[in-house]
């Protein structure tokens, strides 16, 4: 059976090589038959890797411990749910999973465009096949998941071996969210291959216009959304499992996942400049290239052991392969750009510094500054070791000092950008659009100051959050008011109608609102409280307005783990509110102990209790209690982000409105009167 | 001195001492907490010392205890941090020092946006120059188009 899996992987590699070679030959010789067969080979890769994945899953579910990968990451007592997820628990399996997700994207990209864009698709197909060849080479020759356990017999002859039970899954991964988090993140990482392939393909083939952007907009949004969900799920997992009371530690692997998301965000904004005004073509192409390169860099950091991280895989030589691949990608992208740079000339110039275009420029600049700061801090320990010979740490204090001001400026731009008109914004328009949101923000700030808010950054975050929320609300209100008056419907229905007429624009606003929620949630951390105390049964710990009394310690066991559990009764104002049960689990197969946090979460605050083990000196149980305001806003913001992105991907609802006479009052008048001339001057597709 | 007044004196003295000690302990705890945010746990968990709750971590407990002791001795912050650097090496500091090559860690995140802003300004300036030149020279219109425009504008005025 293992031969079956290995064979499927070899065939997949051969199919990818054929798709690459036949694709190039089809382009050079202009032979449609070759191009078509290359496409079919590209699609076949998906089927072949699916077989390999199915075989490996079969080994997990049948406890085939003759397979080295299964023996290292599973055991008999592991619940089926986690046996499935054990596929991506280690280097080899996760690379196979990566290849499968990539091949799924490639399959759909090839299949859905099989009758479209005949000039562009062969180029994009070749690029996608090139990326697949790299990962399949790793799957076959560097980190094969189908290696069998072997041992030398008495005569010194190497024979296949088997063990009675596996080492078990890493306890940190035995959490429901870990079944979802890696696939989400990988869907993000691999998904950016599609816009990269189309961008590079369009550049290589000098494909005219902004077609590649229209084709890849939804693909980019899908990848961006998955990357965002992956990052947030990872943060939630760290919060719920690691038990240190935080969700983001600026760990190199966390940073690596954030980097492509940041450049992807910049790209999603700047493509609008190209769609609307034919500007920033070079910038957009390079943003996609850089986003893809950062995906590879992130994988390199995670898998090579180059930087120390609790999330990283073990140190291995696989990093050299990623360095090589990254070098090839940089060379190919640079060469393609240099050869075809004339093709990327802007159609239009910037008319005014106070315009939507310039706000996008600033937004991109700030996003790139944030990306650079995170990348710089992440790589600085390695750089420092190279240059000065001594390694230093770059921890959360550095990242917070550097990134918080950048993030706040970005939040400010989130409010300003959408209210500026394309080409030029008049002073009257600025006054009309910004007076109330600014006033609202200032009032919120004053009220917060009166209530004793003294954290500067949190105060600024609150002011800007209110400002951005009001700008978004005013955009919805002004548009909906016109529709409500004209169609004689209530304001809520009009908001729905407005959103569905320009899903990209209003979905984008919802995403902006999601970012406000996430920022407010993060700002709440300035008011965190924590108390650590040794507690015997009957003793009480006080935190904020809560008293936590220890009722009992007991032991719960099953075939997978043995858990020591504290039963804590929470009182507020002398009244019993709830019981919470933080645990420490000892996993039998891996012989590793982990904490299981008890978290009582409300929109206002989280009461987060950790059973931190026994004091080495007194052997008394130690409870660490945290009171963390507004954490739930972060997770809720994540859900709103998904909703907004989903909305932005929907096609616009076409209405008869566009056919009405020009004299009919347009909703756009109320929204941004200066947008109309742009539509007349540069009638490009795409909504803002 | 009667035994009653002695008892009162002892009680008052004890109360004063406790009163003095409590805020001092609270201050020490706050200082120790603040310093623990400037140090990394050296167990490899990549977390700041105050946040490392790594089960079975063989470093954080001892390091925190040492920190408490140094704070209780009223050592200055700098001396405490330097003491940890001596003992555990420079990786124990949670942020790069502002000396030597490490200074670039702080400089570059400022330089990069500064240089980018300058480049952006240059690009925008060139764009605007080109835009101005283009509008001064006027659009290039063929004779045929010009004649058509004149014809159509004449027709509009006739109407």
Order of helices and strands of chain B: HHHHH
- Percent range for β-strand residues of chain B: under 5%
Q: Count helical runs of chain B.
A: 5
The top-level CATH class of the largest domain in chain B is Mainly Alpha
Name the beta content range of chain A: 5-15%
Mind telling me which CATH architecture of the largest domain in chain B this is? Orthogonal Bundle
Q: Total strand count of chain B, please?
A: 0
Q: Name the structural class of chain B.
A: mainly alpha
How far the N terminus sits from the C terminus of chain A, by CA atoms, comes to 53 Å
The helix content of chain B is 55-70%
Low-confidence stretches of chain A: 656-688
Count of DSSP-assigned helices of chain A: 21
Cα gyration radius of chain A (Å): 28 Å
Helix content of chain A: 55-70%
Which ranges of chain B are low-confidence, i.e. pLDDT below 50, for 5 or more consecutive residues?
155-159
Structure description:
The complex is a heterodimer of chains A (688) and B (159). With 688 residues, chain A is an alpha+beta fold. Among the domains of chain A are: 2-150 and 184-241 and 253-301 and 319-336, no CATH class; 527-632. Chain A contains 21 helices and twelve strands. Chain A has helices at 2-29, 32-61, 68-73, 80-85, 91-112, 121-142, 176-191, 193-204, 211-242, 252-277, 281-304, 318-339, 356-388, 396-416, 427-450, 456-487, 491-501, 503-523, 631-649, 667-671, 676-681; strands spanning 150-152, 158-160, 529-534, 540-543, 546-557, 561-572, 575-580, 583-587, 592-596, 598-601, 605-614, 621-629. In chain A, strands 4, 5, 6, 7, 8 and 9 form a six-stranded antiparallel beta sheet that branches. Chain A has a four-stranded antiparallel beta sheet with strand order 3-12-11-10, with no helix packed on it. Chain B has two domains: 3-95, Helicase, Ruva Protein, domain 3 (Orthogonal Bundle), CATH 1.10.8; 105-158, no CATH class. Helices cover 69% and strands 0% of the residues of chain B. In chain B, helix 1 packs across helix 2. The radius of gyration of chain B is 36 Å and the shape is elongated. The termini of chain B are far apart.
């Amino acid at each position: 059976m293992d031969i079956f899996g290995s064979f499927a992987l070899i065939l997949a590699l051969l199919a990818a090589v054929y798709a690459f070679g036949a694709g190039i030959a089809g382009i050079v010789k202009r032979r449609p038959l070759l191009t078509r067969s290359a496409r079919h080979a590209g699609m076949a890769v998906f089927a072949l890797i699916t077989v390999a994945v199915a075989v490996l899953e079969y080994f997990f579910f049948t406890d085939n411990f003759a397979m080295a990968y299964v023996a290292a990451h599973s055991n008999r007592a592991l619940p089926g749910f986690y046996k499935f997820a054990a596929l991506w628990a280690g280097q080899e399996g996760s690379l196979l999973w990566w290849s499968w997700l990539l091949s799924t994207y490639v399959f759909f990209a090839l299949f859905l465009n099989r009758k479209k864009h005949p000039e562009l698709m062969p180029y994009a197909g070749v690029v996608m096949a090139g990326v697949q060849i790299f990962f399949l080479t790793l799957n076959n020759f560097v980190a094969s998941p189908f290696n069998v356990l072997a041992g030398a017999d008495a005569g010194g002859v190497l024979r296949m071996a088997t063990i009675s039970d596996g080492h078990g899954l890493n306890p940190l991964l035995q959490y429901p969210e870990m079944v979802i988090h890696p696939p989400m993140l990988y869907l993000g990482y691999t998904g950016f291959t599609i816009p990269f392939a189309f961008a590079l393909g369009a550049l290589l083939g000098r494909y005219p216009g902004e077609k590649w952007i229209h084709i890849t907009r939804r693909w980019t949004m899908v990848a961006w959304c998955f990357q965002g969900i992956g990052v947030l799920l990872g943060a939630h997992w760290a919060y719920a499992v690691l038990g240190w009371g935080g969700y983001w530690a600026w760990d190199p692997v966390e940073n690596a996942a954030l980097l492509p998301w940041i450049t992807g965000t910049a790209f999603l904004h700047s493509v609008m400049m190209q769609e609307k005004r034919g500007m920033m073509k070079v910038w957009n192409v390079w943003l996609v290239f850089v986003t893809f390169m950062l995906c590879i860099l992130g994988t390199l950091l995670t898998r090579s052991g180059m930087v120390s991280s609790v999330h990283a895989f073990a140190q291995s030589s696989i990093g050299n392969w990623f360095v090589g691949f990254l070098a090839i990608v940089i060379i190919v992208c640079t060469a393609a750009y240099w050869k075809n740079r004339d093709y990327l000339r802007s159609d239009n110039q910037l008319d005014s510094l106070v315009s939507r275009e310039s706000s996008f420029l600033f937004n991109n600049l700030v996003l790139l500054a944030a990306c650079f700061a995170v990348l710089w801090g992440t790589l600085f320990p390695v750089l420092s070791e190279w240059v000065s010979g001594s390694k230093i740490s770059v921890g959360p204090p550095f990242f917070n000092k550097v990134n918080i001001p950048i993030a706040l400026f970005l939040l400010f731009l989130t409010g300003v950008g959408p209210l500026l008109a394309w080409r030029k914004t008049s002073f009257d328009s600025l006054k009309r659009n910004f007076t109330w949101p600014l006033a609202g923000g200032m009032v919120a700030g004053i009220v917060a100051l009166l209530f004793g808010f003294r954290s500067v950054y949190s105060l600024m975050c609150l002011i800007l959050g209110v400002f951005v929320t009001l700008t978004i609300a005013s955009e919805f209100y002004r548009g909906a008011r016109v529709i409500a008056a004209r169609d004689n419907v209530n304001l809520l229905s009009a908001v729905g109608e407005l959103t569905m007429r320009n899903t990209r624009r209003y979905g984008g606003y919802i995403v902006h609102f999601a970012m406000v929620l996430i920022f407010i949630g993060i700002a709440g951390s300035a008011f965190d409280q924590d108390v650590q105390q040794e507690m015997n049964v009957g003793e009480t710990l006080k935190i904020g307005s809560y008293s936590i009394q220890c009722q009992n310690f007991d032991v719960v066991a099953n075939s997978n783990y043995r858990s020591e559990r504290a039963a804590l009764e929470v009182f507020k104002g002398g009244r019993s509110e709830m019981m919470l049960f933080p645990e420490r689990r000892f996993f039998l197969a891996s012989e590793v102990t982990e904490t299981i946090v008890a978290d009582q979460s409300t929109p206002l605050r989280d009461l987060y209790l950790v059973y931190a083990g026994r004091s080495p000196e007194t052997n008394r149980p130690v409870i660490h209690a945290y009171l963390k305001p507004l954490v739930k806003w972060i997770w809720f913001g994540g859900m709103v982000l998904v909703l907004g992105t989903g909305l932005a991907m929907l096609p616009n609802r076409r209405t008869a409105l566009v056919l009405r006479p020009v004299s009919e009052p347009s909703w756009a008048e109320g929204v941004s009167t200066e947008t109309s001339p742009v539509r007349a001057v540069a009638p490009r597709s795409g909504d803002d | 001195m009667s035994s009653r007044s002695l008892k009162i004196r002892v009680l008052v003295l004890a109360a004063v001492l406790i009163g003095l000690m409590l805020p001092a302990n609270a201050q020490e705890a706050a200082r120790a907490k603040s310093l623990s945010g400037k140090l990394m746990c050296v167990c490899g968990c990549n977390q700041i010392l105050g946040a490392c709750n790594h089960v079975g971590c063989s470093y954080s407990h001892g390091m925190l205890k040492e920190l408490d002791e140094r704070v209780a001795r009223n050592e200055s912050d700098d001396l405490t941090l330097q003491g940890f650097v001596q003992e555990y090496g420079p990786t124990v500091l949670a942020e790069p020092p502002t000396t030597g090559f490490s200074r670039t860690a702080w400089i570059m995140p400022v330089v990069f946006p500064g240089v980018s802003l300058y480049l952006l300004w240059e690009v925008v300036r060139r764009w605007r120059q080109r835009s101005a030149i283009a509008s001064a020279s006027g659009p290039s219109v063929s004779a045929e188009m010009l004649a058509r425009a004149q014809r159509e504008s004449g027709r509009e005025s006739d109407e």
